């Protein structure tokens, strides 16, 4: 993605050679949605400060297996990351990091629920691990307990909204990503949008 963005910026702004693109955050590979990009190293430093200071609100939508009860709540777990398997796990180990998210059910289907998630912390695979921990893995997420993979290899986790105070203008910036063009998103999301 970074290579594509560098080429796109170079083309749009007629920059010779390779354009600078900085990533103040990332999405898991199978996740769709918004990513913030910085076009200069100075902008990257400023956005890194925004992200590290937690002055940012990130909202995700996920389609999970089953019907989550209660329909809204706050999940608090402690997670550890296994570098060998590239997975995170709920753990009681002393080195585990606290992971907190808030969720709300937006819509229910026959076998799946559309969930809105607001992160309070940003841990490795946090949403995926915490939803698995309560028995509702994300559709298509074989790594974290889903029964079946999706045909495209992705998972039904979407970075839906990012909101932050611009580090220079001090204006609130809010960006909303359109949902993937896929049947289950179309079936559940129109009622929730």
Describe this protein's structure.
A hairpin with a 4-residue loop joins β3 and β4. The chain is α+β, with helices and mostly antiparallel strands and 193 residues long. It has a single domain, classed as Pseudouridine synthase (2-Layer Sandwich). Strands 1, 2, 3, 4, 5, 6, 7 and 8 form an eight-stranded mixed beta sheet that branches. Helices cover 21% and strands 32% of the residues. The longest helix is centred in the first third of the chain and has 12 residues. It has four helices and eight strands. The model has no long low-confidence stretch (mean pLDDT 91).
Briefly say what this structure is.
It is built from 4 helices and 8 strands. By secondary structure, the protein is an alpha+beta fold. It is globular and about 50 Å long.
End-to-end separation in angstroms reads: 27 Å
Overall spatial form: globular
Low-confidence regions: none
Number of helices: 4
Strand content: 25-35%
**Count of beta strands:** 8
- H/E series: HEHEEEEEHEEH
Average pLDDT across residues? 91
* CATH top level assignment: Alpha Beta
So, the CATH homologous superfamily? Pseudouridine synthase
CATH architecture: 2-Layer Sandwich
Rounded to an integer in angstroms, the radius of gyration calculated over CA atoms is 18 Å
- CATH fold title: Pseudouridine synthase
Counted up, domains total: 1
Helix content: 10-25%
Going by helix content, strand content and strand pairing, the class is alpha+beta
Biggest sheet architecture:
8 strands, mixed
